[in-house]
Amino acid sequence: MLTDKELAVARAAKGFMPDEEGLALHDAGLDGGNVGPLLEIGSYCGKSGVYLGAAARARGVVLFTLDHHHGSDENQAGWEHHDTDVVDPRTGRMDTLPFFRRTIEDAGLEDAVVGVLGDSPTVGRFWTTPLGFLFIDGGHAEDVAMADYLTWAHHVLADGVLAIHDVFEDPDQGGQAPFHVWQRAVADGFTPLSTTGSLRTLRR
Ligand code: SAH
Ligand code: MG
Fold this sequence. Notes:
Rossmann fold, alpha/beta, 7 helices, 7-stranded mixed sheet, binds S-adenosyl-L-homocysteine, binds magnesium ion
């Protein structure tokens, strides 16, 4: 259960997480949070982090949420998902870190959400903590999304939950990389659990 404040902050935050999918993500986080800590690839402005952070708190674990905060290719100027508000005027580069911090602060979740600043494969090279829940929502290019899966999925404990966002089976609906990651996870022995919009969950 999210508090009214958490829900209001999640709904108001910039990002790419429809409320229905966010609530399903929260439920998946509660499930995986019984097994171990949560980790998200792709914090952006903290929207999904509120749904997941509330789940982490409820289970007495934490959400690690990883981002270099400079945006994916599909967030850059000229692309569909670009938002000029998140450009740092000093450098002309995207910087979503201040927005992320504010969202988590406004939601009152700073004790449950640990921001990890860096490049996913780079952090992953040194990561050793087993996870109860992994959410893959970083870059959506084929090589980037698959690298996230290969870097992180093996840290998910038995009975833990893997969630993948922006999964579209039909190429007319969206890019195929997250769907290919889902197919790879199934081939690797993850069991499909649920589908809510473009959010899919699986159990290890
Ligand atoms: N989960 C967010 C949306 C994430 S958008 C929400 O619910 O709103 C994808 C994010 O992945 C972007 O913020 C981008 O900076 C990040 N990202 C892309 N490639 C990355 C990489 N290699 N390492 C770290 N973060 C990355
Ligand atoms: Mg997404």
